[in-house]
Amino acid sequence: MKRNIPHEIEPLKALQEFTTARIAIGRVGTSIPLKQSLDFKLAHAHARDAVYSELNINYLTDVFKQFSLPVLQLHSRVTHRRQYLQRPDFGRKLNEASLSQLEDYFIQTDIAIIIADGLSATAVNENTFGLLKELIPLLLAAGFKFAPISLVEQGRVAIGDDIGYNLKAQLSLVLIGERPGLSSADSVGAYLTYAPKPGLTDESRNCVSNIRPKGLTYKKAAKKIFYLISEAFKRKLSGVELKDNAGLIES
């Protein structure tokens, strides 16, 4: 005899408190309920919109003035969004006009902060200022010196190698819009690379992911990034050889 199990005691129901993933959404016959089906389609539309969103250059340039640092407006070799999606290699390099902007900076610095649209400019527009408000005071208090902040259109993670190297920074920190998911189209990733230079690959970097109000909060992300940067300078390396042991130290 088939029993009707109350919805409240379904095994996965309690897990909804801890995740925005689509679990325990129920069913109607062999399909999912109409509301959940429409929510899924809406989330998919938000993810597609995020991929084609654009950096709010004027807004970001204006709010970053609060950090008393020059702001550079740069561009990768990509000329349009379809090319960005089809030619990832073009998004990893600056165009000639942007490279020429960096020639005016001759003084070696500690950290170059790079803001790039990546696969969600929406995430960058909404979250990078809040994160930097938490992070920059921590870095300043520790005595780090900054290169100009770089705002990069049509950029990918590795473009930080070009910029960090040309700005003569010992470390590059790239804040970039992550690939949108069906529950998070506004997630920022932070990638740090010690001794950046053209030609490095992903094992040379450390990543802090899912930075957004409903994910890893600005304050927690800032503390984690600060720890990794401090360790990178202490050990003069980054990437697979640099482990995030902050939790072990705190415990």
From TrEMBL:
It catalyses: ethanolamine = acetaldehyde + NH4(+). Its cofactor is adenosylcob(III)alamin. Belongs to the EutC family. InterPro entries: EutC, EutC_C, EutC_N. One of its GO terms (molecular function) is ethanolamine ammonia-lyase activity. One of its GO terms (biological process) is ethanolamine catabolic process. Adenosylcob(III)alamin binds at residues 157, 178, 207. Catalyzes the deamination of various vicinal amino-alcohols to oxo compounds. Allows this organism to utilize ethanolamine as the sole source of nitrogen and carbon in the presence of external vitamin B12. This is Ethanolamine ammonia-lyase small subunit. It is an enzyme of class 4 (lyase). It comes from the Bacteria. Its EC number is 4.3.1.7. The lineage of its organism: Bacteria, Pseudomonadati, Bacteroidota, Sphingobacteriia, Sphingobacteriales. The keyword Glycosyltransferase does not apply. GO terms for cellular component: ethanolamine ammonia-lyase complex; ethanolamine degradation polyhedral organelle. Pathway: Amine and polyamine degradation; ethanolamine degradation. Keywords: Bacterial microcompartment, Cobalamin, Cobalt, Lyase. It comes from Mucilaginibacter ginsenosidivorax.
